[in-house]
Give the backbone structure.
Amino acid sequence: QGVGFSEPSMGIAVKVSDGNFRALEPIMIEVFKQLGILRNIAEKPFLKRYEHPEIRNQRDILTGYIEVEFKLKKC
């Protein structure tokens, strides 16, 4: 997944090693938080559902949530 911004001028690329897209949205939310692009998710309620998406089984029973845990390193 690639995302580009004109202000501030930057590009972000994310690769999920198992190829599954379900973690991509919470990863991007966390990247935006750590970069200061998204300071308070409460101000963007439409993004809230992407922060900790639900995991449901075949019977549509809630079995968990996706949690991301990482720190960006400046290169």
